[in-house]
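Contributing new records

If you add data, match the layout below exactly. Sequence lines come first and carry their own label; structure lines follow with theirs. Keep one chain per record. Anything else will be rejected by the validation script.
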Amino acid sequence: MAKTKLPWVVAGVAVAAIAVVLVATRSGGGGHHPAPRAGVTGARVLPAATFGDDQRLVRAYEAARAMPEVFDGLYCYCHCKEDMGHVSLLTCYESEHAASCDICLGEAAIAAQMQAAGATLEDIRRAIDARYKT
């Protein structure tokens, strides 16, 4: 009798494990994008001139200052929210943190390019999730 139940027990455990994975994936699993804060501005973003001739940094910091509502609606996959208390990707640009982080810079490049092409915040979130969510 025990031998006939074993395949059903194994199947049940497998189905339960798959359900857990699906629920975790749908709920964000590693990073929930924050809602942009009402009235958020780029006033606290470091001036792009801080970074001299490094055009990658200049473009990223200029984008953060120009589109704070987008950056504030993005989770930063370098996990600085958990490690440093950052609220959103915008927070990374309020210090020199983003200047030394390839993930922050990569997310900024995606956001700036997509917004220039007319993408919505949801479109940008999906693209960033596809690139950085593991």
